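> forwarded from #structure-qc
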């Protein structure tokens, strides 16, 4: 195990690379959870200022990389069974792209007390895969990963430009108003005293929009919705639903007071993705999880 001093690295990569991906490439051999701890604690700086994992870098940016130790691992490697289980959930694969049906309860990457996530597990069989986007730990459904940097940049650009069509299945508490088809409410991230990250509606937050469509009214009372996020903010659908008075069932962050409407999990599922990539129109669909079947209206 070799000790390193803090160093400044000038970015010589293509514009638009995420800071966390840049660091993971620069810190080969440093466990992923350790890299994200550096970011959370403010140990990493860009041009002398604080930064976030998703910050986009441009050529010439100066990144301070803090002292670290390169070792085989601070954490046990993911078990092979984790990769095997995920490979049973592949929805699509070609030379550039891998799409899986992510299970509820599995984080997309390690960090914040999670030893490994989907991407670490899949790297046992697909060493170069990178996340094209993210899903909450307890959200299931379509998750895209790129197999090379060219594809990763194209996918990031597609998500940034809102060129990816996304549909989520959502079961919320109460009777959703038929006229409520669009929620425009800016969102702001904040931290609880414990350090846990949360999101709230705030006038000075980031622009966020979710369109909703009633699929079925249930007898609980609850409502099955299709949600179409037009922006990609953290916890966006969950916070927009809760702020409208109808939190997602099974949501222990934003819907605790609706615990009487028991749900076996967070009732949020990324059912569909649509995009054009390299001139090809692609559409991916993830089947409904078993937990949703109990809420499915009878024919």
């Amino acid at each position: 195990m070799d000790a390193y001093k803090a160093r400044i690295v000038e970015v010589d990569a293509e514009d638009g690379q995420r800071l966390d991906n840049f660091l993971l490439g620069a810190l080969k051999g440093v466990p992923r959870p350790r890299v994200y701890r550096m970011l959370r604690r403010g140990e990493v700086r860009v041009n002398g200022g604080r930064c976030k994992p998703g910050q986009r870098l441009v050529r010439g940016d100066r990144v301070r990389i803090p002292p670290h130790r390169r070792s085989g691992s601070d954490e046990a490697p993911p078990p092979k069974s984790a990769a095997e289980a995920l490979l049973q959930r592949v929805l699509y694969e070609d030379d550039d792209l891998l799409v899986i049906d992510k299970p509820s309860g599995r984080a997309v990457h390690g960090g914040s007390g999670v030893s490994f996530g989907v991407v670490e597990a899949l790297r046992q069989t697909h060493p170069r895969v990178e996340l094209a986007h993210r899903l909450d730990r307890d959200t299931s459904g379509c998750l895209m990963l790129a197999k090379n940097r060219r594809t990763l940049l194209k996918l990031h650009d597609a998500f940034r430009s809102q060129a990816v069509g996304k549909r989520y299945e959502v079961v919320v508490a109460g009777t959703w108003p038929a006229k409520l088809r669009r929620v425009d409410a800016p969102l702001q991230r904040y931290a609880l005293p414990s350090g846990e990250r949360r999101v709230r509606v705030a006038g000075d937050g980031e622009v966020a929009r979710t369109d909703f469509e009633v699929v079925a009214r249930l007898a609980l009372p609850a409502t099955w919705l299709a949600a179409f996020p037009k922006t990609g903010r953290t916890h966006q659908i969950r916070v927009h639903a809760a702020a409208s008075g109808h939190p997602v069932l099974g949501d222990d962050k934003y819907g605790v007071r609706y615990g009487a409407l028991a749900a076996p999990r967070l009732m949020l599922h990324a059912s569909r993705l649509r995009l054009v990539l390299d001139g090809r129109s692609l559409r991916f669909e993830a089947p409904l999880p078993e937990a949703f079947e109990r809420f499915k209206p009878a024919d």
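QC bot note: Residues 33 and 113 are 8 Å apart (CA to CA). The first strand starts at residue 2 and ends at 3.
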